[in-house]
Every structure is written in structure tokens, then in C-alpha cells.
Amino acid sequence: MYQWRKFEFFEEKFSGKVADDVTGKIQCCSSGKGRIVLGCDDGTASLLDRGLKFNYGFQAHSSSVLFLQQLKQRNFLVTVGEDEQIASQPPAVCLKIFDLDKMEPEGTSTSIPDCIQILRIFTNQFPEAKITSFLVLEEAPPLLLIVIGLENGSIYCIQGDIARERIKRFKLQVDNHSDKSQSSITGLGFRVDGQVLQLFAVTPNTVNLFNMHTQTPTRQTLDQIGSSVTSVGMTDRSEFIIGRPEAIYFYEVDGRGPCWAFEGEKKFLGWFRGYLLCVFADQRTGKNTFNVYDLKNRLIAHSIVVKEVSQMLCEWGNIILILEDKSTLCIGEKDMESKLDMLFKKNLYTVAINLVQSQQADAAATAEVLRKYGDHLYGKQDFDEAMAQYIHTIGHLEPSYVIQKFLDAQRIHNLTNYLEKLHEKGLASKDHTTLLLNCYTKLKDVEKLNEFIKSEDGVGEQKFDVETAIRVCRASNYHEHAMSVAKKAGRHEWYLKILLEDLGRYEEALQYINSLELSQAGVTVKEYGKILIEHKPAETADILMRLCTEESELPKKGASSGAFISMLPSPIDFLNIFVHYPHALLEFLEKYTSKVKDSSAQVEIHNTLLELYLSHDLDFPSISQSNIDEGGNDPALRPSKAVSNGKMISDKKDVNDEKGHQERRQKGLTLLKSAWPSELEQPLYDVDLAIILCEMNDFKEGLLFLYEKMKLYKEVIACYMQVHDHEGLIACCKRLGDSGKGGDPSLWADLLKYFGELGEDCSKEVKEILTYIERDDILPPIVVLQTLAKNPCLSLSVIKDYIARKLEHESQLIEEDRRAMEKYQEESSTMRKEIQDLRTNARIFQLSKCTACTFTLDLPAVHFMCMHSFHQHCLGDNEKECPECAPEYRAVLETKRSLEQSSKNPDQFFQLVKSSKDGFSVIADYFGKGIISKTSNGPTEALRSNSASSANDF
């Protein structure tokens, strides 16, 4: 003890006297609920508020108060005291429970708490003995467990709801010596661990532990040495403290624990916020000393010489000593800052560190102490030890504070150590990683660099910034280390960047890509495919085929081929890497289309293939001209130039190029046809783009196929007209101009117009065209004559036979029309005469039978002008029309009504004019039916209004 340092970590808050209202001698005390309760030998209990100010007192027992305890969970006061009985009998020892929240008026000036229960402690089963110790445990309210230690070595226990007297009494026996001084219970202590309840009991000879959670409490002896004085206590870790003259002992459930050799008679022991409190009598001086021990740090936090102490307790965060002369001493702990300032002034940094750690101060406060200690050591130029302290501040102290100090001191080894710890804790920034790697490279410490980069337990991405580490290693030419970091962190793009740009190891890069997952490999090939294609075209194409098809993975997926292919990358995603290598792209796409028939990107793939097939030089228009030599050839794709015999080699290359060009065109035509099967309305490529490509590259066969599939027949014959292919032109019209097979007969008219404007002798072709025009009656003869008259090289003999046949045919039609006209004129004349006769002459009805029932006609009868007669009863209500002639008349009226309705629909009229071979016949038919000739402003005006806008359609 004498080797322990003494510090004044506590200070006297106030001192004074107990209030004069407390008249008796203080025998016991208790604290809780923000107040102190004092029990005196005159039977009174006094309650003191903060500052030891007297609140009120009351007569708890008639004789004296032996023990009392303030409960924590409920505002109850439990007392044990003596109450006077009949004069001939000794005082009875009773246990009382007071409810301090309920007051009973007594007189006019004072009040006492409500006493809710009074129990006699000693009964016939529990014989009376001197009480040496008393303890109350609040179990689950309202249940209490009261233990009373006796001089005879017995412990009386009262358990239950004592306020309602629902209790159970039982006895625990410790020692049963004939000498009561050796068996007296000198101390008790409860230990609660979850549901486990245990009771420590001390006698002068033994230390015992009772397991109270069993049905019958069991006892075990922890030590064969006890204590004869009542100096016991409990720590906040449920350790039992016993004070003996030679030392202070700590006990746990398994026996004796640590022992502290503090000499002197221990009068009072206590525990306060991790400190051991002890009042002992110094044998050398004969005075009482009160010490506060910090056992963790092995120091005396406070020491003061005091008079005879009567009671010691803790309340309001202070330690309160009540002395025999009723004076009081209140001692409180200083704040942490004051204690640390005291230590810093004495340069006791290690003590300060131990203090903040033992008192569980926050990490920031601990770091501040460590920083000051580090600054102190740094000032003494003890850099290694200073750095050891700074390392402990990581996470709380700004790293730049430490880095700046050791940069200035040029202590690169210490700085490296600090940066390593910073990375281990995952608190390093990009700049810290850069600085650490620069330290390694400056020191040329490859071993440390390897340990930092390549260790199996791995620093990993959480410990340092991966990109910064890679960048610094590359800049320092530590490419292998940069690759190791990139590979471990899964930064495949960086790994390949180093392999390809720094090391030029293309084969290894391809192997690495092959080892990646499908999605990762696709991303890396997109970024570095141009470099790979330039140096390893065949191997790169193989990787792309694996990425886009991945046939080996199909069985593993357990899905259909079409569903799996839709998840794979599309070849279109990789077109940019082939921008300078169209030959490689063509081969890749051809291989892909031969393997995959139902790709989701078929349209884009076919568009690209068409562009390559139809391109004259197998090139993209967007390719940089820097890659093309002066002759227009790509040097990367053609053989090297020969020094001698250059002309022969050049001619040979031209022949090969032309041959290849023709083969590609043939493949393009095959693709156009195969990608537009007859069952599809739209092809598996962009039609407009295909037409543009064919136009740009003068690919007539493709244009003809596309126009024909799109039924643009006029554009088809226009292609033949441009090249003056007369034979192909007529053959095309024979195939496409047959209306019976869905063709367009008007093509013959366009063909005739072409030959009429040709300006050369084409008699043979014109005669053949006229045959089909005459067969399908496509054009009137006058139009044929006007069209052919424009060609000065054609003679009349070309159309002589055609005109003769047409005139003969027209003469026949004229004769047929004349005969029909005469017939209609005769019928009209007969009708007029009959109408005139009906208007001017009388009609004689001579029918003798009814037309309806064929019986003899009698009156009343009805005669119609159509010479039909009926009985009136046969007609019924219909007397206005003849039943025999009415259906025919109604049909005529219906026809007339339908003609009038159609006259109100001019669109139908013009549609008939457009679709008819002879529009004039349609107009004549309308006039003949009397539709157009009406003078009303209805349909006629409608036709007139539309005739202006549609005059060109006649």
C-alpha cells in the first residue's frame, strides 16, 4: 500500500452537523430515493434530504431502531427494532414496513408514514437471539426476501408479500459452536445472476455461500477463515468483500479471489463507481483513515484522516461519512478533466491513460490523452514510442496531424508503420494509400510491398483504395504488384490494361478473359477488343464466339436454347472493335449466323453483313483514312508489297479482289432472299437500308429482288430501263404485268411509253407489247398512237395490223350499239303510245273472274288499269295497287331509290371511274340511269364539287 501513489481525485463537497432534530444516537442508516434515513437508539427514524437537511422524523419503534433499509423499487422503509411490552417482559424485536408515500396525521404539527405491516421476528420455531446483520432483497414486487443474521450462527429468512403477510419463514444454519463469538453472523451479501440467487454469509471462522434458487437452500464453504468484524461489502460485479486486519479479500461463487494487503483494522468497507472505500484504524498513529483505492490502476485516489466514523453510505453521487459526534463529511469525485490536468502537470501520462481506460471513458477522450502523451514523447525525440501512442489514436485523431510531424522529421520508417496501421483498420484514404506505396518504393522494400499487396489474408479493397494502389504501382514500374491488386479486387479492366498497354502480353490477356464469367468477359472485350483484334485476331474472334454462343453452358442452364441465347451478349455489341478490320468482322458474323439461327439481334446482324457483302472494298465508310494506304488498300489486311515484279503482283491482287467482290455480292443476294422468306411480311433486315446499300454499290440484282418483294413493279422496270435491257424488260413485264396472277397491267403502258420516247428502232419490241395491250385492252388506240408518234424511228407498219384489228372491233361494237339503240327507241315509242292511250281513251274491263280467287266476278269489284280485276273482299284494305303487278313495280322503285342513293356518294363514282378500263363508259352508264342528269342541287352539286378536284383521275 505504501508503494501506491496518492492522488487527490476526490474533494470535500461540504461538511457539517446532523440536524438537531436527530436527538438519539445513530445506530443504523440507509439511502435511496434521493434521501438518507437514520435510525436512532430512541426508536426514531429521521429522513434527510439533499445536503443532509432534515425533512421529517417519526417514532418507528418505542425502544430503539436496530436496522433499517430503504427499498429501491418502492418507496417503502423496512425497519427492525425493539418495542416495549408489559413491564414484566423484555422488549420484543419486531419488523415493520412503512409506506413513505402515505402519511397518517398525528396531531397538528407532525405526521408519520403509514405502517402497513408489523411482524415478530422470533417465534416458538425461531428462538430469540441477538441480531448481528440484516439485509433485504427486492425480488419481483411485492415480493421481498429478508435475511437476519444471528449471533448463534443461524440466519432467519422471511420471504413473500410481507405487506399482506403472505410469507414463508425458514432458517439457514451456518455454524453451531458453543462459543457464540465464533459462530456469529458478521456479514451478509446477495448475489443475483439472472434467475440465480445466492447469499454470502460470513462468520469469524468461515465464508459460506447459500444457493437460494434450489428448493432447499444448500450451503458451501468458500473459505475456512472469516471475519470477526462487520466490515463487508459488495462490488458492482457481485463480488463479496471482507476486511481483515492483514488484508482485504474478494470472494466469488467459486471461492476466494484477489487479495489486497492493506494493513490496519477495517471498520467500514464500501464500493463506489469502481473504487474501493475503506475506513481503517492506523495502528502506528492510532488515527482513523479514510482511503479511496483505484485497484485497477494501483493508486490511492483519496486519503483523509477522520474521527471515529459511525456510518458510511453513498447517495447523490457522493460518499457520506457520519461521525460519532454527528458531524458529517461529504466527499465527491472530481471530473475527468481535472484529474487528467493534475496528471499532465506531473507528466504522468501512463497513469492518465490507465485512468481513462479503467473508468471506461469514451474513445475520443482516451485518444486525446494518448495524443498528448505522443506529443510529449515526440518533444523528447523518442519517435518510436511516440508513434506507438499515435497509432492507438487512429480513428479519432486526424491522420494528417501525425503524418505532418513525421514528414517534417523525415522519419519514413515510423511514417510507414503508421500508414500500415491506418490501412489495417480500413481508415485510409486514397492519399494515404499513395503515400504508403511511395514510402515502400522509396525504401525499395519489395518484401513489405509484397506483404501489403499479395498477402493471402489480403488487405483487400476495404483496407485501401484499389485504384490508387494500382496507379502508384504502375507509375513506379511495379506492374506485377499492380496486376496482383487488380486481380484480387476483381478490377479486370485494370488487370487487362496493364497486360496490354504496359506489358504487351496479349496471349496471357486472352487466357485471363477466357477465365472470367460471361458478363465480365463481355465488358473487358468491349474495352480492349481493338488491341486484341490488332495482335491476336483469330483468338479474339474465338473468345467472341464463346461469349455470344456459349454452347458448353447450355446443358448447365437447364433452359431452352432460345431463352439462353437471349441472355447472351449480342455480336452487335462488339462491332466497334472491328472498325479497322472488316475481314475479321465478316468471318465472325458468318460463323455466328451459321451457329445461331434465332438471335434477337438478327436484323442488326443481317444489316451489317449486307453492308460488308455489298461494299466494293470490304470497308466501312467511317474507317479512318490514316489506316489506308495511298492505293486505297488496307495494309493490315493485304500482303506486303513486293520489291520486284510489282506490276504482276498488283494485277494478281486486282483479279483476286474482283473475284472476292463477286463472291460477296452473291452471298449478299443469297442473304437478301433467305432472310425474306415468303411466309414473312417483313424481312429479317432493314429494307430501306438494304435498298440504299444496293443503290450505293450499284447492285442491280438486289434492287430487283427487293422491289419485286415490295411490289414496287414500276421501280423494277425502271431498273431495266436504266440499263436498256429490252429483253429483260419485256420478260419482267410478262411476269409482273399479268393481272390474272396479281400483276400490274399498267406496266405495259409504261413500257410502251418508254419505247415511244426511246428514239431508236424497236419495232419488234413494240409489236410484242401491243399484243399484250390488245389482249388485256389496257390502252385506247388513240393513246397508243399518241405515245408511239413520239419515236421518229417507228413506221406506221408497226401498228398497222393493231389499228386494223382495233378498228374492226370498234366497228362491231358500234353496230351492236346501233342495234340496241334502235331496239330501245322502238320500246320507248310503244310505251309512249300506251301512256297516251291510257290518258285519252276509255278502258273496257271484260274479265268475268276474279284474278285472285278465280271465282265469278260480282259486285262490289275493283278494276285496275293493268286489266286485272278483283273482288273487293279479296283485296282487303289494299285497294290502291294491284297485287299481281305490285312486286314488279316495287322492284323498279327500289332500283330507282338505290340509284338515287348512290348518286349521293361521289367517292364511289370516282372509284369506279379509276378502276375501270374505260372511264367514259362509267360516266355514260350514270347518265343513262338518270343519276347525273338530275337538276336538283343535292347529288349533282356534290358530284360537281368533287369533279374539280378529281378531274385528273378520269
UniProtKB/TrEMBL annotation:
Cellular location(s): Endomembrane system; Vacuole membrane; Prevacuolar compartment membrane
GO CC field: CORVET complex; HOPS complex; plant-type vacuole membrane
Any GO molecular function: zinc ion binding
Presence of the UniProt keyword Metal-binding in the record: yes
Domain of life: Eukaryota
Residues of the RING-type domain: 850-885
Residue intervals passing through the bilayer: none
Keywords: Coiled coil, Membrane, Metal-binding, Vacuole, Zinc, Zinc-finger
One Pfam family matching this protein: VPS11_C
Membrane topology, from the record: Peripheral membrane protein
Coiled coil: 807-841
Record-level GO BP terms: endosome organization; intracellular protein transport; organelle fusion; vacuole organization; vesicle docking involved in exocytosis
CHCR repeats: from-to residues: 390-541, 559-764
Function text: Involved in regulating membrane fusion at the tonoplast and the prevacuolar compartment.
Family named by the database record: Belongs to the VPS11 family.
Assembly: Core component of at least two putative endosomal tethering complexes, the homotypic fusion and vacuole protein sorting (HOPS) complex and the class C core vacuole/endosome tethering (CORVET) complex.
Protein name: Vacuolar protein sorting-associated protein 11 homolog
Organism: Anisodus acutangulus
